Amino acid sequence: MTGEPLSGPVHDAVRAVLGRSAEFWPDLVSSLGADAGDALPALWELVWNGEVTNDAWAPLRAKRRYGIPATEHRPRRFSRSRVSCDVATAGRWSLTGRLFAEPGDPPSKPDRRALAEILLERQGVVTRDGVRAEGVPGGYGAVYAELRALETVGACRRGYFVEGLGGAQFALPGAVERLRELRDVGDEEPLVLAAADPAQPYGGVLPWPKRAGARAARVVGAHVVLLAGEAALYVERGGRSLLPLREPEPEWLRTALAALVDWVRSDRGRRLSVERFDGRPLVESDVLPLLVDAGFLAGPRRAVLRP
After folding, report:
1. What's the order of all strands across the beta sheet hosting 272-274?
2. 276-277 and 241-244 as β-strands: parallel, antiparallel, unpaired?
3. Which of 46, 72, 100 lies at the terminal end of a domain, its last residue?
4. DSSP characters for 202-228?
5. How many angstroms separate the CA atoms of 288 and 271, rounded?
6. DSSP, res 99
């Protein structure tokens, strides 16, 4: 909690500098244009008032925070108590306002640039629906201007890279080249991804197949098996239920189940104990033999797959 804002020319100057970005002490003093002896007490007054914070513990542990120690002596060469007199100014100083922002508030301007760069690294191709799926406060509008600025300096490209995802798309140059390489590629190998993985587009950039209804979601612990880039099988959180995302057919089910077994046995997945398939008890479905052929162990009520 912060108290009443402190008033004073040095206090206001410190707020103005730290409002633009976090600063180390030498840079802060240089930007203030004030005497260090006046700036340091004002800085610590703002700290105790809850308006300024630091990313290091050293300043709080300093024996003296408002200047060099009163008595100076030369410590032994290898003494552990040999500490620099500027320990009270170590680390980077910043305003605490962003820590107390409401969850739904759009990010501040310095944060928007960092957020735009993170989205490009995570998604490769950033779209309106992709940003919305990330739950970014303010949506696409909060980072659109920063994405355009990154395009201006050549850090990303703007274009229509993926059909059906809107015209305002931004992508890393490497992501665009990889998309071009995939145009002439035939059937891809099956892929198992976490449902909440940014590389898994369904439920975020793309809608879930209609067959999923409301049972599929981007939740932690759930996984999706993709065949040739299309969602085929949904593994619900806990691994007790399998949901086919297309009409169940032995041909594609064998491929999807084999990929799931390989993924679990490669130490990337946990033990699966499947009890239901497509909303019905597994023992009442025709899929149990396919699970056994893939490597599951059949039980009286479930099929178990161990890493």
Report:
1. 272-274, 303-305, 297-298
2. parallel
3. 100
4. BTTTBPPPGGGTTS----TT-EEEEET
5. 17
6. G
> CATH number, domain at 235?
3.40.630
Range of the domain at 215: 187-305
The domain tally of the chain equals 3
d(CA 253, CA 40): 68
Bridge partners of 158, per DSSP, are 170
Render pLDDT for 176-201 as a digit per residue (tens, 0 to 9): 888 777 666 555 688 899 998 878 88
Model-level pTM?
0.56
In angstroms, the CA 9 to CA 287 distance is 75
Residue 208 carries which side chain, given as an amino acid letter?
Answer: W
Residues 238-266: pLDDT tens digits? 889 999 999 999 999 999 999 999 998 88
Beta strands, E only, the chain = 23-24, 52-54, 92-95, 125-126, 157-159, 169-171, 191-194, 223-227, 230-235, 241-244, 272-274, 276-277, 280-281, 297-298, 303-305
Q: Count the alpha carbons within 13 Å of 225 in the hemisphere toward its beta carbon.
A: 27
Q: Are 156 and 124 in contact (CB under 8 A)?
A: no
95 and 164: one domain? Answer: no
Letter string b/e over residues 25-37, b meaning 16 or more CB atoms within 10 A of that residue's CB: beebbebbebeee
Residue 181 buriedness (CB in 10 A; 0-12 / 13-18 / 19+): exposed
Q: Are residues 73 and 144 in the same domain?
A: no
DSSP string for 244-297: ESS---HHHHHHHHHHHHHHIIIIIS--EEE-EETTEEGGGSS-HHHHHHHTPE
Q: Are 225 and 191 in contact (CB under 8 A)?
A: yes
Which tokens hold the place of 191? Answer: 């892929």
Neighbours of 238 (CB within 10 A): 12
